[in-house]
Amino acid sequence: MSVRVEFLGRLSVRYGASKVMTGESIASLRAQLDLNDPTVRAVVNDVIVADTQAIASGDRVAFLPPVGGG
Amino acid sequence: MMVPVLVNTDPLDAGKLLSDFTSANCEAGAIVSCVGQVRAEGGDVNRLHLQSYEPLTTAGILDEINAVRARFDLVDLIVRHRIGDIAAGETIVFVAAASAHRRAAFEAADSLMDALKTRAVFWKREDGPDGPKWIEPRAQDYTDAKRWIS
Questions:
Q1: pTM across the whole model
Q2: At residue B35, what are phi and psi to the nearest 5 degrees?
Q3: What is the DSSP letter of B42?
Q4: Nearest CA in chain B to A66
Q5: pLDDT digits 0-9 by tens, A11-62
Q6: Most buried residue, A32, B4, B25, B84, by most Cβ within 10 Å?
Q7: Which residues of B make CB contacts under 8 Å with A?
């Protein structure tokens, strides 16, 4: 499935603000991105999800690093 | 109930927010406010960039407001948070709590600020002479926030 994936905070330095990716699940996206950091949470359609979450075309997908600081 | 806009890019006028909040809460015996602003860090920081992710950011703040309201005996509670580019010395966040007696207002404002610093869905980037730098969470903020767990 092809989806636009957003990268928040410091992740945007490594991956850009967003890009279109193809994958069946969050785990598959993480593997392509080499993004194994468990403190980075995945969000699909505004809900924080586990890596087993399947994704479908049109889903809103984002990876969120830890919040806070400053 | 209409939910006010809690988070946006407009500059925050902390003086006016406090004045309006005070006028609207004549039943309160005490009002405590906190203004968070961008530290200049001796010229090392020109501005802060705050990024949010809606609707998670606003939903999370509303949850924190509800938790603080449930815990403390308050007349009213307000939070306004800015996002986008914020210059040194400008206001990032305004929190005010009103209560019949002062202790509840002090503790409510303090605990809400701790929640905003550790759990609100924001990412902060310092833009200074050495270029942009995303800020990592601080251990002290988590220690502060744990004071309210009981």
A1: 0.89
A2: -110, 115
A3: G
A4: B137
A5: 999 999 999 999 999 999 999 999 999 899 999 999 999 999 999 999 999 9
A6: B25
A7: 48, 51, 53, 55-56, 117-125, 134-138, 141
What's the ipTM? 0.91
pLDDT for residue B23 is more than 50: yes
The answer to whether residue A61 neighbours chain B at the CB level (below 8 Å) is: no
Pairing of strands A2-7, A61-64: parallel
Searching chain A, which residue's CA lies closest to the CA of residue B51? Answer: A9
- Contact residues on chain B for A69, CB-CB shorter than 8 A: 117, 124, 135-138, 141
Cross-strand partners of B134 = B125
Report the alpha-carbon distance of residue A66 to residue A49 in Å, rounded: 15
- CA–CA separation, B125 vs B117, rounded Å? 14
When scoring B123, B140, B144, B146 by the number of chain A Cβ atoms within 10 A, the one with the most, hence best to mutate, is B123
B139: left (phi over 0), alpha (psi -120 to 50) or beta: alpha
Three-state DSSP state, B73 = coil
Q: Which residues of A touch B122 (CB under 8 A)?
A: 67-68
Contact B53 A62 (CB under 8 A): yes
Report how far residue B53's alpha carbon sits from residue B32's, in angstroms, rounded to the nearest whole number.
Answer: 29
Q: How many angstroms separate the CA atoms of B95 and B80, rounded? A: 7
CA distance B101 to B60: 28
